[in-house]
Amino acid sequence: MNEEYDVIVLGTGLKECIISGLLSVDGLKVLHMDRNGYYGGESASLNLTQLYEQFRGGAEPPKELGANRDFNVDLVPKFMMANGKLVKALVHTDVTKYLEFKAVDGSYVFKQQKIFKVPSNDAEALKSPLMGLFEKRRARSFFIYVQDYELDEPKTHKGHDLTKMTMAELFKKFGLEEGTIDFIGHALALHRDDSYLAQPALPTVMAIKLYKDSMARFDTGSPYIYPLYGLGELPQAFARLSAVYGGTYMLNTPDAEVVYDEAGVACGVSHGGQTAKCKMVVGDPGYFPEKVKKVSQVVRAICFMDHPIPNTSDSYSAQIILPQKQLNRQSDIYVLSCSFAHNVAGKNTWIASVCTTVETSDPESELGPGLALLGSIKEKFVKVSDVFAPKEDGQTDKCFISCGYDATTHFETTMVDVLDMYTRITGKVLDLTEKDPSQIEGQ
């Protein structure tokens, strides 16, 4: 513990493990510590015993659920966009060799009390029951425009400057109805509210292209992939990467505390009466209570079922997005399911998650529209989590703090935070375009 490190990382959540891996690859000397005895922190995958410890005060799991070892239950369930930033980070670091993935079966959107498959291109738009005949034609024209759009080829822009034109104006050009705009903005571009409509159209068009490109990777009807044995495999894979490049790991350090010099700059971490010195500290908000602010709350329900989610073509895995306007809310509700097919549950067991940003004083009731889609539920675990963000960027006190995990069921917003942290820490922008993400295989 008396050694000096370039960086000490606190917490083994996915964000912290990615940063630890990236900094180790960059040649920095990294010490990584966690209060817990397992990897993953807030984003861990738990077995049945750990799950019942956390949610049921250590009660014995019912025998009929199956063997403890068969369960890897994600505390913050999310899927990965097949061509998204997390997959690119996995490929960039060669962490893919430690993991196996399975393509997600279906991507759906909720409209007028029904579930519909999300169309992602012009051909699917023409077949979709989401829209009437004339709207299908307009949507097809919009999708063709997006599919053909290339940043560096002005002729594909058709006279539209998407850096200045708002997304609302672009939708208006194609005459799209509110319901169509709803599913494009929330189920394809994955926006969490409607503020994007007043912003330049380019990021939304690129997000729709990402969805379509990810769809093209696997012929499953969804742009998402998911690691076998649960999301807890991801932080462990990045931890392994860090160790390969000389990173040191210490779990079970409940008394780990940041030490500051007279100027209030982080200079080390104390544990067991000793202090390890460092040039900077990286960690999750739980290690820096004075340096973070609460920005929202997320409510999540984890449900065990003996059947797939109804109306999802008997899928072993699926995502359903319930756009805010369909529910008279300010934020979307997200539903996600995976199953024994992904080695995360016992035989013939599905695990569904319903989550949203808290808007009322009765968070659990806000999950109602999502829970209503699941059918019969055998077990339900509900947790309300505060989401924290750092008050400052870390340049002054050398404390680089991650944000908490939002309600989304994909990793795009998670990776925005990781890449922003990496830039704040190193002063460099991480180039994830060097390698082709198609080397990741989905089963």
TrEMBL record:
CC per GO annotation: cytoplasm
Stored Pfam families: GDI (PF00996)
GO biological process: protein transport; small GTPase-mediated signal transduction; vesicle-mediated transport
Gene3D superfamilies documented for this protein: FAD/NAD(P)-binding domain, Guanine Nucleotide Dissociation Inhibitor, domain 1, Guanine Nucleotide Dissociation Inhibitor, domain 2
GO MF, one example: Rab GDP-dissociation inhibitor activity
Protein family according to the UniProt entry: Belongs to the Rab GDI family.
Protein name listed in UniProt: Guanosine nucleotide diphosphate dissociation inhibitor
Phylogenetic placement of the source organism: Eukaryota, Viridiplantae, Chlorophyta, Pyramimonadophyceae, Pyramimonadales
